[in-house]
Specification:
The protein is mostly helical and 189 residues long. It has 11 helices and no strands. It has helices spanning 4-13, 23-26, 33-51, 56-65, 70-73, 78-83, 88-96, 102-114, 118-140, 146-155, 160-171. Helix 8 (102-114) crosses helix 9 (118-140) and helix 9 (118-140) packs antiparallel against helix 10. The chain is globular, with a radius of gyration of 18 Å.
C-alpha cells in the first residue's frame, strides 16, 4: 500500500483533535468530531435494534464515516455554512483515494447524503440524537440556549424510532444512572 493505509489512519485520527464548532454559539460544552462520531455509532446501533429491520453493518458504516471529510474541511456549523461551502464530496474522495475500501466509504457517503434508505435515515437520526443527548445534558446544567437548539434538533428526526427515543431522552434526568443505587458505598471511603 506504500504508506497509504497509514496516511488514512492518521487522517481519520485527526477527528479526535477537530472541534465541533456549534458550541461557540451555544456558549457551553465542547467535543471533538471523533467524540461525536462515537456517540452517533452507539445511537445507530440502538436505533437499528429498535427498528429490527435495518441492516446493522450498513447503518454503522454510515454513522462511523458520516463526518470523515471534516478531517480536511473542519466542522462548519449552520452559520458558517451560510457563507462557506466546503467541497465535502471532493474532500472525502481525496481522503479515501487509493484505499482498497475507498469505494465502499464513498458509496456509503452517497447513501448518507441522499438520505433515502432506512439505514441512512436511522444514521441521520443517530446524528441528531447525539446532539440531543449533549444538549439535554447542557440544559440540566443551566445552558439557556440548549432548549432552543433542542426544539429544532427534534424536528429533524426522520424515523419513528428516533422520535420515540427522543421522547425518552427528553423526559430523562441525565444523571439518574449515576445515582441508581444509593447505598452505603456513597458514604464510605
Amino acid at each position: 500500500m506504500n504508506g497509504r493505509l497509514a496516511d488514512f489512519l492518521f487522517e481519520a485520527m485527526m477527528l479526535k483533535r477537530t472541534p465541533r464548532s456549534g458550541y461557540q454559539f451555544l456558549g457551553h460544552g465542547r467535543e471533538s468530531v471523533a467524540e461525536h462520531s462515537f456517540g452517533v455509532v452507539v445511537l445507530a446501533f440502538t436505533l437499528v435494534r429498535l427498528n429490527g429491520r435495518a441492516d446493522l453493518l450498513r447503518t454503522l458504516r454510515l454513522a462511523l464515516f458520516h463526518d470523515l471529510a471534516e478531517a480536511r474541511t473542519g466542522d462548519l456549523n449552520y452559520m458558517n455554512k451560510r457563507y462557506a461551502a466546503p467541497d465535502e464530496d471532493q474532500a472525502l474522495a481525496d481522503a479515501v483515494s487509493g484505499l482498497p475500501f475507498g469505494p465502499e466509504i464513498l458509496e456509503g457517503w452517497a447513501e448518507w447524503r441522499a438520505g433515502q434508505t432506512l439505514e441512512a435515515r436511522l444514521a441521520a437520526d443517530a446524528d441528531q440524537l447525539d446532539m440531543i443527548l449533549e444538549l439535554r445534558h447542557l440544559q440540566t446544567l443551566g445552558s439557556a440556549g440548549a432548549a432552543d437548539w433542542l426544539f429544532y434538533a427534534q424536528k429533524r428526526l426522520k424515523t419513528d424510532e428516533g422520535r420515540q427515543l427522543h421522547e425518552e431522552i427528553a423526559r430523562a434526568d441525565p444523571t439518574r444512572w449515576w445515582f441508581e443505587k444509593r447505598d452505603d458505598y456513597w458514604v464510605r471511603k
